[in-house]
Amino acid sequence: FCVRLATRLRSEHVTTKLPFFVYCESSCRSILLHVLSDLMTLHEHFGQLEGLKYAWIGSACPALNTYLAVAPLLGIDVNYYCRCDGAGEPVSPANLKELHDTHRPQYQVNIHEAPDLHTALKDVNVVAINGPPWTKTSQMIRKVQIDKLAHTNWVFLHLFPRRPNEVDEEIFKGDNNLLWKSFANSKWVCAAIIDYLLTGSPLTTDAGECHLSNDVS
């Protein structure tokens, strides 16, 4: 049970009576703003999203649920490696059955649970960390380990807060880390949503720069 659920349900009920749009960027099931910012950052970095291989290392959470819901629409393969804290038992994301019943047959992407860290990191382009796979027995992930297993063009993303024994400083402070760029791109995602709601037109791009439509001051 998520303590935020009751608040979110009350908020959804209230918004049905409001004369303006209310956007929920995070809930117990999804965390859309964070994932959209990551996807925008990955598209800027790689030039496309289709064909990317994405590894999720850590606990199952709303961010992973959101990635699994969106990835099939964009042609992104996902390996997820989740375990219960301390027990080392596999954890299934909340929307996994829905994914198998709908998106996977339609979009033919590979989304599967990795049995170990080695399999999760094999040939991936994106390494996303949300805490160690389990806390009592986990070992810190090191850059040399990712260099050996992942694709040569791999990048790193993270879901704060940062925890002990996740990744070494060479990863977190290195050139492969796109976390800070993703945070910076959050404002463009918000701007795009607001611009679309006010004007009905998406943000336009010009030489890689985002511009609000002329109708928004």
Distance between the terminal alpha carbons, to the nearest Å? 42 Å
- Biggest sheet, in brief? 5 strands, parallel
Give the overall pLDDT as a whole number.
78
User: Which stretches are poorly predicted, pLDDT < 50 over at least 5 residues?
Assistant: 207-217
Number of helices: 9
CATH architecture of the domain at 49-178: 3-Layer(aba) Sandwich
Protein name: ornithine carbamoyltransferase
Pfam family, one: OTCace
InterPro entries: Asp/Orn_carbamoylTrfase_sf, Asp_carbamoyltransf_Asp/Orn-bd
Keywords: Transferase
Can you give a write-up of this model?
By secondary structure, the protein is α/β, with parallel strands linked by helices. The chain has helices spanning 4-15, 32-46, 62-74, 96-101, 103-107, 117-121, 143-149, 169-172, 179-199; strands at 53-58, 77-81, 111-113, 126-130, 155-158, 204-206, 209-211. 30% of the residues are buried.
Highlighted features:
Rossmann fold, alpha/beta, 13% strand, Asp/Orn_carbamoylTrfase_sf, 5-stranded parallel sheet, single chain, Asp_carbamoyltransf_Asp/Orn-bd
